[in-house]
Amino acid sequence: MTPRKVLLLGNSYSAAPRVALRNDPGRWPGLQVTVLAMPGNMLAALALEEGRLVPRGDDARYSMGYYNDMTELALAGFDAFAVIGGLSFYTLLPLQNTHRSPDFPSVMRGEACQLISTGLMDAMIRQHMTISAALCTIRLLAGLGQGPVLFMDSLFPSADCWQDGERFDPYIAMAERGDAAAFHARYLRILHEALGSDATYLPQPVQTIVEEVFTAPEWIRGSLRMQPRRDVPHEKTDFGHANPAYGALQVDLIASALAGL
Amino acid sequence: MSHPYSDLPETAFWRSGVAEADPAAPLGLYRPKFPLDREAGIATAGSCFAQHVGRALRDAGMTVLDAEPSPPKCPYPVARAYGYGIYSARYGNIYTVRQLVQLIEDARAGHVDPDAIWPRAGRFHDALRPTIEPDGFVSAEEVSALRLEHLAALRGLFAATSCFIFTLGLTECWADRQGGRVYPTCPGVVAGRFDPTRHAFLNLRHAEVLADLERARALLQGFNPGMRMILTVSPVPLTATAAGGHVLTATMRSKAVLRSAADEFAATHPDVDYFPAYEIVTNPAARGRFMHGNLRDVTAAGVQAVMSTFLSAHELAADDLAAQVRPRHPAAGRNAAEVAEDLICEEILLQAMRK
Questions:
Q1: A119 CA: distance to closest CA in chain B (Å)
Q2: Does B77 contact A at CB distance below 8 Å?
Q3: DSSP letters for B262-307
Q4: Which residues on A lie below 8 Å from B80 (Cβ)?
Q5: Taking every annotated instance into account, which residue ranges of this chain make up the domain GSCFA (chain B) (predicted)?
Q6: Which are the contacts of A141, defined by CB distance < 8 A and separation ≥ 6?
Q7: Could you tell me if A158 and A164 are in contact, meaning their C-beta atoms sit under 8 angstroms apart?
Q8: Are strands A114-115 and B117-120 parallel, antiparallel or unpaired?
């Protein structure tokens, strides 16, 4: 049976598919998607209790109520899960700002850095993934054995993120050094190891990627906040969140992946 | 009637000084030869027990140098597993003074010994610090490159160190017959392959330990002429002996040699002090409570007795050493017992790898 009743869980990056589903429900006939959106740290504070997702602690309870108008969610009836966000390649950037291993292209070219081992770099990435909201949520859902779990991490920053140099200069520097593609390939290798059989990874749609590790701005501009009651656009200086058009691509990928299972 | 013993203080008598004294706060046991202030640049090194020393000094607000800090955002468990933050640099445990001497010589020369790279299961270990990479390095070239960086960091460390605190651990070690290089572990235990035609067992004698201490001091003062040393002897017994006898006599022999050499060395140099960590932990008045049930690992109470004695003697007592872990310490949240037992010790692998 092709799964059709899907629970989509995510942090602020789930706003794009949520709005896409609301705006154009007819695009995915037969696909019933319930969205549970919370800030990432609150997502990691969800627990399973007798087949229900319940928040642990007052902050998580408030967050679940504020963003979803519910204080718990019964999981019976869902036959697939999709986790959006909660882990991002971008957040691993600080690991390689100053310290790099010999397999980085820039190190192979002899550019100066603080040298660390290949094993240490892998271990740092692995540990960050292991404790991420995404992996915590995925392990929880996979443990249910109730249906497949799909995972889409946060998309690459926008290609025009140079406008916020304070935040994105290190990312741009990584790309300019020629390290970004190799670092991302390493991230994906370790992510696949970390996911194991718990979840299927859905990569960022290729048509949205430019210069290997950036998102074309047209998939970013017009992004909306996680605000559930009204559409609140992100500031123009937000170069990280996707717009509903990208969200529609994400739902396409989810539908396609589930059809193929 | 007057005689040399008639006016001695209580600490000079076993009954009042030991049997009836509090082993957790032994009065008059340690009188520092020179002061140690919070601004002194301290480097720590030595056998596993030395990990307690650095941690307690850091928690007490002392300036414990770290020449190889972990990368930014490196999660604490990963940093620790990869040998960061354990000592003042990422040299791992230094069990013998001979090992210390060759480390300083290597740092001075920027010398990487290609024979000290041991393969295991497709990975490569730095034989001179075999557990700093839990899974080994990806290539021999990576071992060399990282070791060169390490040695460069050591040169900076030694130049900045005003007080070098070294814990003497063992006299038994394994050496390369040809070059004389000693290893922290027997080849074949963590990595490499034991070859009796190539590897020789050494059980360093008093004169050898003393000569190594002299050499280490001279080398260290070559980096910083004003550097002082504080020596301790680890109270942790040998995990195993290869000397052919009983591990109990081997342990006593080893500790006696180290204690004796440290005593003579400290007595000879005004810039070298001895701190009696060994005596505090093995004090019979503690009735064994400073040792865990395996009679090898030091308990949190033992570590606390050692470090509070050291700090109070230097008038640096931490406000609450019993808490052991201060908020600024990355291990915050763990209790003293967990911290006390959380040592990285290659020597214990001898037991684990026993047939």
A1: 7
A2: yes
A3: HHHHHHH-TTEEE--HHHHHH-GGGTTTTB-TTSSSBPHHHHHHHH
A4: none
A5: 42-310
A6: A9, A81, A83, A149, A199
A7: no
A8: unpaired
Angle at B88 between CA B82 and CA B89, to 5 degrees: 50
Contact B75 A131 (CB under 8 A): yes
Determine the Cα–Cα distance for residues A16 and A10; give it in Å rounded to an integer. 10
Residue A176: partners with Cβ closer than 8 Å, 6 or more residues away: none
Residue whose C-alpha is closest to residue A201's, from A213, A183, A187: A187
For residues B38 and B63, the answer to whether their CB atoms sit within 8 Å is yes
Helices (H), A109-239: 118-130, 133-144, 165-177, 180-195
Number of domains in chain A: 1
- Give the pair of three-digit tokens for residue B44: 């720590």
Chain A residue numbers with beta carbons less than 8 Å from the beta carbon of B149 are: 114-115
Q: What is the pLDDT of residue B316?
A: 83
- A-facing residues of B in 93-122 (CB < 8 A) are none
Answer for the pair B169, B236: CB distance below 8 angstroms, yes or no.
yes
pLDDT at B353 over 70: no
> Is it the case that residue B339 has pLDDT exceeding 70?
no
Residue B351 has a pLDDT of 65
The domain of A248 spans 5-88+128-158+184-260
* Residue B217 neighbours by CB under 8 Å, 6+ apart: B229, B265, B269, B271, B272
Mutate to test the interface with B, among A120, A125, A189 (most CBs of B within 10 A): A120
pLDDT tens for residues A65-84?
Answer: 999 999 999 999 999 999 99
Phi/psi for A179 (5° steps) reads -95, -15
Could you tell me how far CA B103 lies from the centroid of its own chain?
Answer: 14
Q: Is the ipTM of this complex over 0.90?
A: no
Contact residues for A96 (Cβ-Cβ < 8 A; gap 6+)? A104, A121, A174, A179, A183
- Between A149 and B58, the more confident residue is A149
Check if B142 contacts A (Cβ < 8 Å). Answer: yes
Mutate to test the interface with A, among B80, B146, B148 (most CBs of A within 10 A): B146
- Interface check for B75 against chain A (CB to CB < 8 A): the answer is yes
Asked whether the beta carbons of residue A124 and residue B134 sit closer than 8 angstroms, the reply is no
pLDDT in tens, A184-242: 999 999 999 999 999 999 999 999 999 999 999 999 999 999 988 899 999 999 999 99
CB of B69 within 8 Å of a chain A CB? The answer is: no
Q: Which residue from B73, B74, B142 is facing A117, i.e. has the nearest CB?
A: B142
- Whether residue A166 lies inside any domain: the answer is no
Tell me, yes or no, whether A204 lies in a domain. yes
Tokens, residue B2: 């007057």
Chain B: give the shortest CA distance to residue A63, in Å. Answer: 27
Select from A103, A115, A120 the Cβ nearest to the Cβ of B149.
A115
For residues B66 and B88, is the Cβ–Cβ distance under 8 A? yes
The DSSP symbol for B43 reads E
Q: Distance between CA atoms of B74 and A205, rounded to whole angstroms?
A: 30
- Domains in chain B: boundaries: 36-352
Q: A56: domain CATH number?
A: 3.40.50
